[in-house]
Amino acid sequence: MTDTARALGSVGRGALRLTVYLLWTLLLIPVQALAVALRWPLRHRLPVFYHRQCARLLGLDLVVRGQQAAGAAAGPVLFVSNHSSYLDITVLGALIPGSFIAKTEVAGWPFFGLLAKLQRTVFVERKARSEVGKQRDDIGARLDAGDSLILFPEGTSSDGNRTLPFKTALFAVAARRIGDRPLTVQPVSVTPTRLDGIPMGIAFRPFYAWYGDMDLAPHLWQVFQLGGMTVEIDFHPPVTIDDFSSRKALAEHCQRVISEGVARAVSGRPAPTAAAAATTPAPVAP
């Protein structure tokens, strides 16, 4: 069997992975449900453990660059990431102890809607401008409680080869102050780069990316059959709203650094040096 044939999947491997995934998930659902209901600290840690095992099961090799803003000293963090697939949930969930911000439709999805609720996802109606204030308050309340959140500001998933324009409305929460400090915002780039060691390129990236009018079930079944995938995650230097003249400027900065991270990973260019990565954002206009 050629490398390409192996990469494109095995029905036996898919069936085994699917079986183990379902058993693993069904085993942990009642544990997480109890932890959420009783507000145990485990409710924050268990999803990370769950997603890490799912990443291993799916053959996702996570290559992490940069330093994640995390820990008690940093306080809650708003992580801002590009979005090309439901697999981003597993990738970021395996690294970040936090909850996602997702569109309200996800709450009604069979099975996956339940998983989202158990990870304490914040559901928002992105098309209703009248709801922006309430959504900002809901997100703010979670941040005030010390919960880190993960936002996909493109509003939909892309083909993985580029980053779509960011919607700035939900960046309003970045103006929130946690105690006497501005909220920490950290841009994150997520890019699938290899499939069984083969550079993915435009041809193979749709095996990871789920976008447009793709049906979920066939795509998910294909993922279970695939060989190992390398996914590169870049944690870019964290910023705050105080570094910028406006919410729009903050959103533009996040989009720029995330887009550059995706473009670098897609092209295979080397990662920037530590000195370059630490470059500060443009100063606030007087």
Automatic annotation (TrEMBL):
<dbReference type="Pfam" id="PF01553">
    <property type="entry name" value="Acyltransferase"/>
</dbReference>
<keyword id="KW-0012">Acyltransferase</keyword>
<dbReference type="GO" id="GO:0003841">
    <property type="term" value="F:1-acylglycerol-3-phosphate O-acyltransferase activity"/>
</dbReference>
<comment type="pathway">
    <text>Lipid metabolism.</text>
</comment>
<keyword id="KW-0443">Lipid metabolism</keyword>
<dbReference type="GO" id="GO:0006654">
    <property type="term" value="P:phosphatidic acid biosynthetic process"/>
</dbReference>
<feature type="transmembrane region" description="Helical">
    <location>
        <begin position="20"/>
        <end position="42"/>
    </location>
</feature>
<keyword id="KW-1133">Transmembrane helix</keyword>
<keyword id="KW-0812">Transmembrane</keyword>
<keyword id="KW-0444">Lipid biosynthesis</keyword>
<keyword id="KW-0808">Transferase</keyword>
<protein>
    <submittedName>
        <fullName>1-acyl-sn-glycerol-3-phosphate acyltransferase</fullName>
    </submittedName>
</protein>
<dbReference type="InterPro" id="IPR002123">
    <property type="entry name" value="Plipid/glycerol_acylTrfase"/>
</dbReference>
<feature type="domain" description="Phospholipid/glycerol acyltransferase">
    <location>
        <begin position="77"/>
        <end position="193"/>
    </location>
</feature>
<keyword id="KW-0472">Membrane</keyword>
